[in-house]
Task: structure prediction
Amino acid sequence: MRRAVNKMVADIGAREFTSEENTAANYAASVIAFLDDAIDRQNEINDRKKSAQMRVMRSADDFNKHYNTARSSFGEDGGEMNIADFLRGVSNMGTTPAVKNALSVGTDTAGGFSVPSRLMPGILAALAPVSSLLRAGAGIVPLDDGAKTFTTAAVNTIPTAAWRAEAGTLATSDPAFRAVVATPRSLAFQFKISRELLADGQNITEALYLAIAQSFARELDRVGLRGTGTAPEPRGVLNTVGIQAVTNGANGASLATLRYGNLFSAVQAILQADAPMPTAAIMSPRSLVGLGQLADTTNQPLRIPGMLEPVQLIGTSQIPNNLTVGTSTDCTEVYLGDFSNLYFMMRENVSVQVLQELYAGTGEIGFACHMRADVVLTYPAAFAVVTGVRP
Result:
């Protein structure tokens, strides 16, 4: 509408408007004012909706939808770009005009460059397949309001309802909710690459996405499951108050003896806490392969019990196999739960710093990648940790 009015005025030129032209211009201006007011009201409604609910991303479609919206909000210009183009631009090598535009507005407070929104879906999409927690249904919540902390509501216990007589006293239930304060912590790593490979390497884009995503995914898995909560490390499932704990005796027990019994014990503990049926069980590769090798008395593969068939079995190298339980030093853990109740609260976006001098003597370029994230469990009772699982 504004462009139409401007064109109309330009076409008329410097002469005095006729009464019809004045009427048309005034009407157009009133329409523009009405639309501006309507858009402002809708933005206020959208802001209230956003503040009332978390934006959760779990799939490539979610990543694309969120960051495509963010691109217009961040004022990023269009144009083709990939992670290799971006790193070339950061390193002052030849790159695309889109990268140059992004770098002109993308400097962060630490002297690095914030990865443009159009590249974030590729990084997160590469991260999801190699993260056991994201595969199990955990979500990523992007935080972009600038606050250092983010408070979300978590369910401690399910309120207990009771019948009452007319004018009778309402039953008092245990506290059902609690506030969980997420403080995104810094997670970083550095890598190097030769100038020649960065400039000319084939499939360098795919390799960079994979390397960056896998590095972040492994550590996010570890802290999401076993994080201590002692700064600067986030708190994971194992050290969260309110989860279900299942032990296998004072010194642990072998998987061949336990079979699926410890998984059933964890499911029972979760259901007895009125939590939903687990959707996944995350364990070390040793345990995952051990379950797959279970056989009956005729050496036929042991069928997964029907109740556990819907539970996705996922392996991760971030659960150790050398934990001490009593006199045993070869124990591991299994994590069960509805992992849609676990979130990575992530401050956008990933940041990249170039380390120009660190590897200059070998003709290589170093990069430091940073992200900030915390772990939140909104329903701890929906998770169980089985300890003392031996080979």
